[in-house]
């Protein structure tokens, strides 16, 4: 078996090597001729799997994407060729929630407010949004949620419509897939009218899909009135993103919210599990074998810290979102927009998830347990 794998998929040799020959290529360099005599293809979101890519796929029988989203894959084209498919739902959801919590804590520090003083509106409560809702609620942060497909099927669920959410919330977090058409289409869900309706002081955070927001309207609002704040990890036309919008964005990152090592390895392993099932072989590699020990495994906290200080210290012991923002700015200055964007993604530094850090609370810090546990850390002596 010959398996073509995106060059930035980790642990591919460990997982797929025992199944056959592993061939590596950068995701943006995958073209039709690369799929000749390939039995299985493993990609990330930057590779568009469509009719054009499949044109010379004479032996392909399986495609896996190490991502939650599947909008980069033409599922009908795969089905027409009787090619098996698997994604990795939930693989990096915890990492995205870490990113959101860290970004909001950073904005709160910059702007002089505390998280519990804001109401967060979550648009889309699937793998990511649902986890975010539970985590923020555990931290004592009030939330509202909008998810029309779930509102249609989940009786008794506490959802509001999007316009009510915009009217009622200080922070809008978008975590929807990109759905082009139909009753629940999400393309430009946050359209020009809704961008205009945002109250002064609002925060818009998008870690879902770039095309779910009208970027032009957002740029005009930021450049004109300048009275809202944006955190953008996803962009229309990646990697050739709107440089003017990036310059106006408080935290601008290159589609890396889910790029924890834990999430990436989970995604690789989920696709590996699907492939061995597809070919009828036993599973021989466990996720535990792939995960290394974290570089910072334990943190001790005692009295003398405010809740805000303790949370920021714990967050930044694992991941500081300002690093990702600064890296994007630096590489775009050096290489230009598209090359700088892709460089940051391809060379993203080691990042672990909040759950890999155990926090030892001494006698003077016991009261911090609910906040830090809610934020996603493992708390000892709480």
Automatic annotation (TrEMBL):
Keyword Oxidoreductase carried by entry: yes
Any Pfam family hit: 2-Hacid_dh_C
Residues of the D-isomer specific 2-hydroxyacid dehydrogenase NAD-binding domain: 109-257
Residues binding NAD(+), per UniProt: 147, 176, 233, 258
Biochemical pathway: Cofactor biosynthesis; pyridoxine 5'-phosphate biosynthesis; pyridoxine 5'-phosphate from D-erythrose 4-phosphate: step 2/5
Swiss-Prot/TrEMBL catalytic activity: 4-phospho-D-erythronate + NAD(+) = (R)-3-hydroxy-2-oxo-4-phosphooxybutanoate + NADH + H(+)
Keywords: Cytoplasm, NAD, Oxidoreductase, Pyridoxine biosynthesis
Family stated for the protein in its record: Belongs to the D-isomer specific 2-hydroxyacid dehydrogenase family. PdxB subfamily.
NCBIfam families: PRK00257.1
The protein's name: Erythronate-4-phosphate dehydrogenase
Organism name: Halomonas urumqiensis
Source lineage: Bacteria, Pseudomonadati, Pseudomonadota, Gammaproteobacteria, Oceanospirillales
Gene: pdxB
């Amino acid at each position: 078996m010959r398996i073509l794998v995106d060059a930035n998929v980790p642990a591919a040799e460990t997982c797929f090597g025992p199944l056959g020959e592993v061939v590596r290529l950068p995701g943006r360099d995958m073209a039709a001729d690369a799929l000749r005599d390939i039995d299985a293809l493993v990609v990330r979101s930057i590779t568009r799997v469509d009719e054009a890519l499949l044109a010379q796929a004479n032996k392909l029988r399986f495609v896996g994407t190490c991502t939650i989203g599947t909008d980069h894959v033409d599922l009908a084209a795969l089905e027409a060729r009787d090619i098996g498919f698997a994604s990795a739902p939930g693989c990096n959801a915890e990492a995205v929630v870490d990113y959101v919590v860290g970004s909001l804590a950073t904005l709160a520090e910059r702007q002089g407010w505390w998280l519990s003083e804001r109401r967060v509106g979550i648009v889309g409560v699937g793998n990511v949004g649902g986890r975010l809702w539970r985590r923020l609620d555990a931290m004592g942060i009030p939330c509202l949620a909008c998810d029309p497909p779930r509102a249609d099927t989940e009786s008794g669920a506490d959802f509001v419509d999007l316009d009510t959410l915009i009217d009622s919330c200080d922070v809008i977090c978008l975590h929807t897939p990109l759905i082009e058409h139909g009753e629940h289409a999400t393309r430009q869900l946050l359209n020009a009218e809704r961008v205009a309706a945002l109250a002064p002081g609002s925060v818009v955070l998008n870690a879902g899909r770039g095309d779910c927001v009208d970027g032009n309207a957002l740029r005009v609002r930021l450049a004109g009135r300048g009275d809202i704040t944006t955190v953008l990890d996803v962009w229309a036309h990646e990697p050739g993103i709107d440089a003017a919008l990036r310059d106006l964005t408080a935290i601008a990152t290159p589609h890396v919210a889910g790029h924890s090592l834990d999430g990436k390895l989970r995604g690789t392993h989920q696709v590996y599990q699907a492939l061995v099932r597809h070919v009828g072989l036993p599973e021989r590699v466990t996720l535990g074998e792939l995960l290394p020990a974290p570089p910072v495994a334990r943190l001790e906290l005692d009295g003398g810290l405010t809740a805000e200080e303790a949370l920021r210290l714990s967050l930044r012991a694992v991941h500081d979102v300002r690093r990702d923002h600064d890296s994007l700015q630096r590489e775009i200055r050096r290489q230009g927009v598209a090359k700088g964007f892709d460089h940051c993604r391809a060379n993203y530094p080691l990042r672990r998830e909040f759950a890999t850090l155990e926090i030892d609370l001494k006698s003077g810090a016991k009261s911090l347990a609910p906040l830090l546990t809610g934020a996603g850390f493992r708390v000892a002596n709480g």
